[in-house]
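chain below, 335 aa
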Amino acid sequence: MSSIVLLWVLFWAVFVIVSAIDLFFVTRRRETIPVRTALRWTALWISVAMLYSVAIWLLHPQGKQVATLFIAGYLTEYSLSVDNLFVFILIFSLMGVPEVAQPKLIKLGIYLSIVLRIVFIIFGIALIHRFHWLIYLFGALLLWTAWKMVATDEADQVHPDKNILYRLAARFLPIHADAPESRRLFLRDQGRLYITPLFLVFLVIGSTDVLFAIDSIPAIVGISQDPFVVLTSNVFAVLGLNSLFFALRGVMSLFRFLKHGVSIILFFIGAKMIAGAYPPIDDWFKDHPYVSLGVITIVLVVSIVLSLWHQKTCQGQIIDAPTKKPGFAPPDSCP
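prediction:
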Protein backbone atom coordinates (compact mmCIF):
# COMPACT_ATOMS: atom_id res chain seq x y z
CA MET A 1 0.00 0.00 0.00
CA SER A 2 1.44 3.37 -1.06
CA SER A 3 1.66 6.23 1.41
CA ILE A 4 -0.98 8.27 -0.44
CA VAL A 5 -3.42 5.35 -0.45
CA LEU A 6 -2.76 4.93 3.28
CA LEU A 7 -3.57 8.61 3.83
CA TRP A 8 -6.84 8.20 1.93
CA VAL A 9 -7.76 5.15 4.00
CA LEU A 10 -6.90 7.02 7.19
CA PHE A 11 -8.97 10.00 6.05
CA TRP A 12 -12.12 7.99 5.37
CA ALA A 13 -11.67 6.02 8.58
CA VAL A 14 -11.47 9.25 10.59
CA PHE A 15 -14.49 10.61 8.73
CA VAL A 16 -16.64 7.59 9.62
CA ILE A 17 -15.47 7.51 13.26
CA VAL A 18 -15.94 11.24 13.87
CA SER A 19 -19.36 11.23 12.19
CA ALA A 20 -20.50 8.26 14.27
CA ILE A 21 -19.30 9.79 17.54
CA ASP A 22 -20.83 13.15 16.71
CA LEU A 23 -24.11 11.46 15.75
CA PHE A 24 -24.53 9.23 18.79
CA PHE A 25 -22.99 11.39 21.51
CA VAL A 26 -23.99 14.88 20.39
CA THR A 27 -26.89 14.91 17.93
CA ARG A 28 -29.02 12.31 19.74
CA ARG A 29 -28.93 14.25 23.01
CA ARG A 30 -32.22 16.03 23.68
CA GLU A 31 -30.94 18.35 26.38
CA THR A 32 -28.97 21.47 25.54
CA ILE A 33 -25.23 20.85 25.41
CA PRO A 34 -23.30 23.10 27.85
CA VAL A 35 -20.87 25.54 26.25
CA ARG A 36 -17.86 23.99 28.02
CA THR A 37 -18.78 20.52 26.79
CA ALA A 38 -19.26 21.82 23.25
CA LEU A 39 -15.91 23.61 23.38
CA ARG A 40 -14.17 20.40 24.50
CA TRP A 41 -15.70 18.46 21.61
CA THR A 42 -14.73 21.23 19.21
CA ALA A 43 -11.15 21.26 20.49
CA LEU A 44 -11.03 17.48 20.03
CA TRP A 45 -12.08 17.63 16.37
CA ILE A 46 -9.60 20.43 15.64
CA SER A 47 -6.88 18.34 17.27
CA VAL A 48 -7.84 15.38 15.05
CA ALA A 49 -7.44 17.57 11.96
CA MET A 50 -4.03 18.77 13.15
CA LEU A 51 -2.94 15.19 13.85
CA TYR A 52 -3.95 14.30 10.31
CA SER A 53 -1.74 17.12 9.03
CA VAL A 54 1.14 15.52 10.97
CA ALA A 55 0.34 12.22 9.25
CA ILE A 56 0.49 14.01 5.89
CA TRP A 57 3.86 15.53 6.83
CA LEU A 58 5.27 12.09 7.74
CA LEU A 59 3.69 9.91 5.05
CA HIS A 60 3.17 12.01 1.93
CA PRO A 61 6.06 12.11 -0.59
CA GLN A 62 5.83 15.92 -0.51
CA GLY A 63 4.92 15.94 3.15
CA LYS A 64 6.06 19.40 4.24
CA GLN A 65 4.49 21.27 1.33
CA VAL A 66 1.23 19.30 1.24
CA ALA A 67 0.78 19.49 5.03
CA THR A 68 1.24 23.26 4.89
CA LEU A 69 -1.35 23.58 2.13
CA PHE A 70 -3.72 21.29 4.04
CA ILE A 71 -3.55 23.46 7.17
CA ALA A 72 -4.00 26.65 5.14
CA GLY A 73 -7.00 25.16 3.36
CA TYR A 74 -8.43 23.79 6.60
CA LEU A 75 -8.21 27.14 8.40
CA THR A 76 -9.81 28.97 5.48
CA GLU A 77 -12.67 26.51 5.09
CA TYR A 78 -13.18 26.25 8.86
CA SER A 79 -13.52 30.03 9.05
CA LEU A 80 -16.12 29.97 6.28
CA SER A 81 -17.92 27.14 8.10
CA VAL A 82 -18.07 29.24 11.27
CA ASP A 83 -19.64 32.06 9.28
CA ASN A 84 -22.08 29.50 7.87
CA LEU A 85 -23.07 28.50 11.40
CA PHE A 86 -23.70 32.15 12.29
CA VAL A 87 -26.23 32.23 9.47
CA PHE A 88 -27.81 29.00 10.76
CA ILE A 89 -28.20 30.55 14.21
CA LEU A 90 -29.86 33.58 12.63
CA ILE A 91 -32.20 31.37 10.59
CA PHE A 92 -33.23 29.41 13.70
CA SER A 93 -33.94 32.66 15.50
CA LEU A 94 -35.96 34.19 12.67
CA MET A 95 -37.99 31.01 12.06
CA GLY A 96 -38.53 30.16 15.72
CA VAL A 97 -36.92 26.71 15.64
CA PRO A 98 -37.08 25.03 19.09
CA GLU A 99 -33.73 24.05 20.63
CA VAL A 100 -34.65 20.35 20.68
CA ALA A 101 -34.90 20.33 16.87
CA GLN A 102 -31.76 22.34 16.11
CA PRO A 103 -29.17 19.50 16.45
CA LYS A 104 -30.94 17.40 13.81
CA LEU A 105 -31.16 20.31 11.39
CA ILE A 106 -27.50 21.16 11.95
CA LYS A 107 -26.44 17.57 11.30
CA LEU A 108 -28.52 17.39 8.09
CA GLY A 109 -27.06 20.74 7.03
CA ILE A 110 -23.52 19.47 7.64
CA TYR A 111 -24.03 16.27 5.64
CA LEU A 112 -25.60 18.26 2.81
CA SER A 113 -22.64 20.66 2.93
CA ILE A 114 -20.19 17.74 2.63
CA VAL A 115 -22.03 16.32 -0.39
CA LEU A 116 -22.24 19.71 -2.11
CA ARG A 117 -18.56 20.48 -1.50
CA ILE A 118 -17.45 17.10 -2.87
CA VAL A 119 -19.58 17.58 -6.00
CA PHE A 120 -18.36 21.14 -6.51
CA ILE A 121 -14.75 20.08 -5.92
CA ILE A 122 -14.94 17.37 -8.57
CA PHE A 123 -16.49 19.66 -11.18
CA GLY A 124 -14.51 22.74 -10.14
CA ILE A 125 -11.09 21.11 -10.45
CA ALA A 126 -12.07 19.39 -13.71
CA LEU A 127 -13.19 22.72 -15.18
CA ILE A 128 -10.00 24.51 -14.09
CA HIS A 129 -7.82 21.79 -15.59
CA ARG A 130 -9.76 22.09 -18.85
CA PHE A 131 -10.23 25.86 -18.84
CA HIS A 132 -7.40 27.38 -16.84
CA TRP A 133 -8.71 30.92 -17.33
CA LEU A 134 -11.56 30.07 -14.93
CA ILE A 135 -9.14 30.43 -12.03
CA TYR A 136 -9.03 34.17 -12.69
CA LEU A 137 -12.82 34.25 -12.72
CA PHE A 138 -12.80 32.44 -9.38
CA GLY A 139 -10.35 35.02 -8.09
CA ALA A 140 -12.68 37.84 -9.10
CA LEU A 141 -15.56 35.99 -7.43
CA LEU A 142 -13.58 35.87 -4.18
CA LEU A 143 -12.87 39.60 -4.35
CA TRP A 144 -16.58 40.27 -4.78
CA THR A 145 -17.44 37.87 -1.94
CA ALA A 146 -14.91 39.58 0.34
CA TRP A 147 -16.46 42.97 -0.34
CA LYS A 148 -20.01 41.67 0.07
CA MET A 149 -19.13 39.99 3.38
CA VAL A 150 -17.99 43.28 4.90
CA ALA A 151 -20.52 45.59 3.25
CA THR A 152 -23.63 43.51 3.96
CA ASP A 153 -24.93 42.57 7.39
CA GLU A 154 -25.85 38.91 7.81
CA ALA A 155 -29.34 39.84 9.00
CA ASP A 156 -29.92 41.59 5.66
CA GLN A 157 -28.83 38.49 3.74
CA VAL A 158 -31.26 36.07 5.42
CA HIS A 159 -34.92 36.38 4.43
CA PRO A 160 -36.53 32.92 4.80
CA ASP A 161 -39.91 34.12 3.53
CA LYS A 162 -38.25 35.25 0.26
CA ASN A 163 -36.40 31.96 -0.31
CA ILE A 164 -37.63 30.42 -3.56
CA LEU A 165 -37.63 26.82 -2.25
CA TYR A 166 -39.42 27.91 0.92
CA ARG A 167 -42.11 29.74 -1.05
CA LEU A 168 -42.66 26.88 -3.51
CA ALA A 169 -42.90 24.24 -0.76
CA ALA A 170 -45.18 26.38 1.38
CA ARG A 171 -47.47 26.98 -1.60
CA PHE A 172 -47.70 23.56 -3.22
CA LEU A 173 -47.04 21.03 -0.42
CA PRO A 174 -49.42 20.26 2.45
CA ILE A 175 -48.02 21.50 5.77
CA HIS A 176 -48.89 19.88 9.08
CA ALA A 177 -48.64 21.99 12.24
CA ASP A 178 -46.50 19.44 14.06
CA ALA A 179 -45.97 19.55 17.81
CA PRO A 180 -43.34 22.20 18.76
CA GLU A 181 -41.14 19.65 20.52
CA SER A 182 -41.08 17.30 17.53
CA ARG A 183 -37.99 16.85 15.37
CA ARG A 184 -39.74 15.34 12.33
CA LEU A 185 -39.47 16.73 8.82
CA PHE A 186 -42.37 14.66 7.48
CA LEU A 187 -45.57 13.46 9.13
CA ARG A 188 -48.27 11.03 8.02
CA ASP A 189 -51.74 11.85 9.29
CA GLN A 190 -54.87 9.94 8.27
CA GLY A 191 -53.02 8.28 5.43
CA ARG A 192 -51.74 11.54 3.94
CA LEU A 193 -48.09 12.62 3.96
CA TYR A 194 -47.38 16.16 5.17
CA ILE A 195 -44.27 18.28 5.51
CA THR A 196 -43.63 20.01 8.82
CA PRO A 197 -42.40 23.56 9.47
CA LEU A 198 -38.95 22.05 10.16
CA PHE A 199 -38.82 20.83 6.56
CA LEU A 200 -39.22 24.43 5.41
CA VAL A 201 -36.34 25.41 7.70
CA PHE A 202 -34.22 22.64 6.18
CA LEU A 203 -34.92 24.02 2.69
CA VAL A 204 -33.64 27.44 3.77
CA ILE A 205 -30.54 25.83 5.34
CA GLY A 206 -29.95 23.79 2.18
CA SER A 207 -30.11 26.92 0.03
CA THR A 208 -27.58 28.56 2.36
CA ASP A 209 -25.31 25.51 2.04
CA VAL A 210 -25.31 25.87 -1.73
CA LEU A 211 -24.24 29.51 -1.52
CA PHE A 212 -21.45 28.77 0.97
CA ALA A 213 -20.25 25.80 -1.10
CA ILE A 214 -20.02 28.08 -4.14
CA ASP A 215 -17.90 30.52 -2.10
CA SER A 216 -15.73 27.88 -0.44
CA ILE A 217 -14.55 26.04 -3.55
CA PRO A 218 -12.82 29.04 -5.20
CA ALA A 219 -11.23 29.79 -1.82
CA ILE A 220 -9.63 26.36 -1.46
CA VAL A 221 -8.73 26.16 -5.17
CA GLY A 222 -6.84 29.42 -4.70
CA ILE A 223 -4.68 27.64 -2.12
CA SER A 224 -4.19 24.31 -3.88
CA GLN A 225 -5.56 22.43 -6.89
CA ASP A 226 -4.42 19.06 -5.57
CA PRO A 227 -7.66 16.99 -5.19
CA PHE A 228 -6.25 15.37 -2.04
CA VAL A 229 -5.64 18.71 -0.31
CA VAL A 230 -8.89 20.25 -1.52
CA LEU A 231 -11.13 17.34 -0.51
CA THR A 232 -9.57 16.43 2.82
CA SER A 233 -9.27 20.02 4.10
CA ASN A 234 -12.87 20.75 3.11
CA VAL A 235 -14.34 17.67 4.78
CA PHE A 236 -12.25 18.07 7.93
CA ALA A 237 -13.45 21.68 8.13
CA VAL A 238 -17.11 20.63 8.38
CA LEU A 239 -16.62 17.61 10.65
CA GLY A 240 -17.76 18.24 14.20
CA LEU A 241 -19.57 21.48 13.34
CA ASN A 242 -22.53 20.25 15.37
CA SER A 243 -20.45 20.69 18.54
CA LEU A 244 -19.13 24.02 17.31
CA PHE A 245 -22.71 25.22 16.81
CA PHE A 246 -23.49 24.82 20.52
CA ALA A 247 -20.19 26.47 21.44
CA LEU A 248 -20.85 29.46 19.17
CA ARG A 249 -24.24 30.13 20.72
CA GLY A 250 -22.50 30.77 24.03
CA VAL A 251 -19.34 32.55 22.88
CA MET A 252 -20.40 34.47 19.76
CA SER A 253 -18.73 37.61 21.11
CA LEU A 254 -15.34 35.92 20.64
CA PHE A 255 -15.94 35.97 16.88
CA ARG A 256 -17.31 39.49 16.46
CA PHE A 257 -14.60 40.43 13.95
CA LEU A 258 -14.23 36.99 12.37
CA LYS A 259 -16.31 38.04 9.36
CA HIS A 260 -13.87 40.89 8.71
CA GLY A 261 -10.94 38.50 9.04
CA VAL A 262 -12.49 36.00 6.63
CA SER A 263 -13.14 38.77 4.12
CA ILE A 264 -9.44 39.77 4.28
CA ILE A 265 -8.43 36.13 3.74
CA LEU A 266 -10.76 35.79 0.74
CA PHE A 267 -9.43 39.07 -0.68
CA PHE A 268 -5.85 37.84 -0.27
CA ILE A 269 -6.57 34.50 -1.96
CA GLY A 270 -8.54 36.13 -4.76
CA ALA A 271 -5.81 38.69 -5.40
CA LYS A 272 -3.22 35.92 -5.39
CA MET A 273 -5.20 33.93 -7.95
CA ILE A 274 -5.50 36.91 -10.29
CA ALA A 275 -1.85 37.92 -9.79
CA GLY A 276 -0.93 34.34 -10.73
CA ALA A 277 -1.48 35.36 -14.35
CA TYR A 278 2.07 36.70 -14.07
CA PRO A 279 4.15 33.45 -13.98
CA PRO A 280 6.91 34.64 -11.58
CA ILE A 281 4.29 35.49 -8.92
CA ASP A 282 2.51 32.17 -9.43
CA ASP A 283 5.79 30.26 -9.16
CA TRP A 284 6.83 32.18 -6.04
CA PHE A 285 3.66 31.33 -4.15
CA LYS A 286 3.93 27.69 -5.22
CA ASP A 287 7.51 27.56 -3.92
CA HIS A 288 6.57 29.31 -0.66
CA PRO A 289 3.25 27.76 0.51
CA TYR A 290 3.96 28.79 4.11
CA VAL A 291 3.36 32.45 3.10
CA SER A 292 -0.33 31.80 2.51
CA LEU A 293 -0.54 29.80 5.74
CA GLY A 294 1.16 32.63 7.65
CA VAL A 295 -1.19 35.29 6.29
CA ILE A 296 -4.29 33.20 7.04
CA THR A 297 -3.12 32.34 10.57
CA ILE A 298 -2.15 35.92 11.45
CA VAL A 299 -5.45 37.34 10.17
CA LEU A 300 -7.50 34.80 12.16
CA VAL A 301 -5.51 35.36 15.35
CA VAL A 302 -5.78 39.15 15.05
CA SER A 303 -9.54 38.85 14.42
CA ILE A 304 -10.08 36.82 17.61
CA VAL A 305 -7.75 39.04 19.68
CA LEU A 306 -9.62 42.15 18.52
CA SER A 307 -12.92 40.46 19.35
CA LEU A 308 -11.70 39.64 22.86
CA TRP A 309 -10.40 43.18 23.35
CA HIS A 310 -13.69 44.65 22.15
CA GLN A 311 -15.69 42.38 24.47
CA LYS A 312 -13.52 43.29 27.46
CA THR A 313 -13.72 47.01 26.69
CA CYS A 314 -17.46 46.86 26.18
CA GLN A 315 -18.03 44.99 29.45
CA GLY A 316 -15.97 47.62 31.23
CA GLN A 317 -18.17 50.35 29.76
CA ILE A 318 -21.29 48.49 30.88
CA ILE A 319 -19.98 48.15 34.43
CA ASP A 320 -18.94 51.81 34.58
CA ALA A 321 -22.15 53.05 32.97
CA PRO A 322 -24.05 55.64 35.06
CA THR A 323 -27.22 54.33 36.68
CA LYS A 324 -28.44 57.44 38.50
CA LYS A 325 -31.00 58.51 35.92
CA PRO A 326 -34.47 57.06 36.50
CA GLY A 327 -35.40 54.35 34.05
CA PHE A 328 -31.83 53.88 32.83
CA ALA A 329 -30.89 50.26 32.19
CA PRO A 330 -27.36 49.33 31.11
CA PRO A 331 -27.19 47.38 27.88
CA ASP A 332 -27.20 43.59 28.15
CA SER A 333 -24.52 43.04 25.56
CA CYS A 334 -21.90 44.79 23.49
CA PRO A 335 -23.17 46.75 20.50
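The two ends are 56 Å apart (CA to CA). The chain has 13 helices and two strands.
thats it, cya
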